[in-house]
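RECORD TYPE: inverse folding
INPUT: structure tokens
STRUCTURE:
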């Protein structure tokens, strides 16, 4: 998100996560719902030499770590 500071990006990510968790999904017209959750992370260009490619690679690595430890 261009022109957005880290705190605002975290707020947007949390709102998105809450909206996804609060919206039950119907599965193939069957009775009942599928509850869906999401993990949202924020990455920022903060150090000299940071590039979008470097941030994406690091974000992917960290997301993989979080996925392995989630319940």
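DESIGNED SEQUENCE:
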């Amino acid at each position: 998100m261009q022109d957005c500071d880290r705190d605002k990006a975290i707020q947007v990510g949390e709102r998105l996560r809450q909206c996804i968790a609060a919206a039950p999904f119907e599965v193939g017209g069957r009775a009942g719902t599928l509850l869906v959750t999401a993990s949202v992370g924020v990455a920022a260009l903060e150090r000299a030499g940071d590039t979008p490619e470097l941030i994406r690679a690091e974000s992917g690595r960290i997301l993989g770590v979080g996925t392995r430890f989630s319940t």
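NOTES: The mean pLDDT is 79.
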